[in-house]
Amino acid sequence: AKPSEKQKKGHVALFSAVGSDFIELYGGSGSRRVRELFNQAKDKLKDLQQQQEESKEGGTSAVVIFIDEIDALGCRGGGTASDGRALGGGISSEENRTINQMLSELDGLETMENIVVVGATNNPDALDKALLREGRFDKKVHLALPNIPARTDIFHHYLKSVVTEEGKQSSNSSETKKTLATELAERTPGTSPAQLSTIVNEAAITAAVTDKTYVTRKLLHEAVDDVLIGKKRRNRMSKTAIERTAIHECGHCLTAWYTSQKHQTRVLKISLIPRGMAGGYTQQLEREESDLVSVQSLFSTLCVLVSGRIAEEIAYCATSDVSPAPTNAWDTPKGQSINQDSEGISTGAYDDLQKATQIAGEMVIAYGNSCMKIIKPDADEKKTDVVEEDAMLSFPLKGERDGRGWLPYSEKYHGQVENKSKELIDFAFQHARKLLWEKKSKLFELRDKLLEKQELNTAAIEEILGPRPE
Of 165, 249, 313, 423, which one is the catalytic site residue? Predict the structure, then answer.
């Protein structure tokens, strides 16, 4: 590690290193590098203090040691995180000596108060507990994802380096870019600063490739989709598959649209243009990282997820315009042959059902919401396997070590969790099926418009479905 050449006023030097720099194949190399780093820092501090005395300047000399990805250096492995995740295998004697040398150096800094050691990691659970005790890394700072004001500032910072449509047409370029930054920030909750930088960079690259002299608002919004969803790709689906995808996505959109805004976020668009791994998608505004989600919001998400499959039932399996479609394309009265005229349900809902099962399981296992009375006030608790007292139990979610051998609860409770999760999903199917049958005409009108335009934004959806309920 080398100190930075540029030192700020006040005689401060910075030494930076990466945790993996201390991991060596040969025995003793890791602990030697730790000693060398701290010895360099101590020598540099003495030089700075001597320079300060000779120049008779005020202030305090200090040295900062920054170690990025410190979990590569400070993890002994073999443990289990607070959420049940496995933290890796055993530890070698070389890694053990390296960690012990780090602990020894940190303890030896008590006589060198002007040396500050800062570590950074995105896996704090993996750190050895001895590193985190008082007197070592005792001050912990969590850097959360940026909120709307922070994202606005970040977007504004990166937009300064590109020529935008608004800046070209307005003399007050800074203010117009600030407005554009606010618009983009509202569309990107839950994103990191690196993703925000990539969005502006992708838009600038697209502008250059298409021979545009400035970055347009449309390019920036398309760049948001490129980063958050995936790049556009050629649509290789057949006409039949596209029509099925359209009714599927319209089912998601319609249920989300007619759900209260308190429980479901705004629908931004529905599209048949393939992006990433998706052949079509319904895009809703993501929630902020700090937002708390209610039980009703989780249940409404279940309803939205299963609505794609129900829309396919209505379009391809319905036998009547007044009664709900069968839950399975092959359901036929006893003694009759299988209805082979029905096109049936596709496998397109596979990912939706996986997500719904995961959310329902989390509601029961982790969030203490297994009581159906929270969602369905008239539910009969006597008919359920989980009683009232079980409703507030909470267990850590599964980590890397899957399998029943790693479950933190009994086999009996595991069966109850499966039954209760199925009950939640079944109730979501009932609720969503009732809504989609009531709005059947709107569902097909929305599908026809989507097939015509290939992509519908919020305004186009509102023209068909009307304003959203409060």
Answer: 249
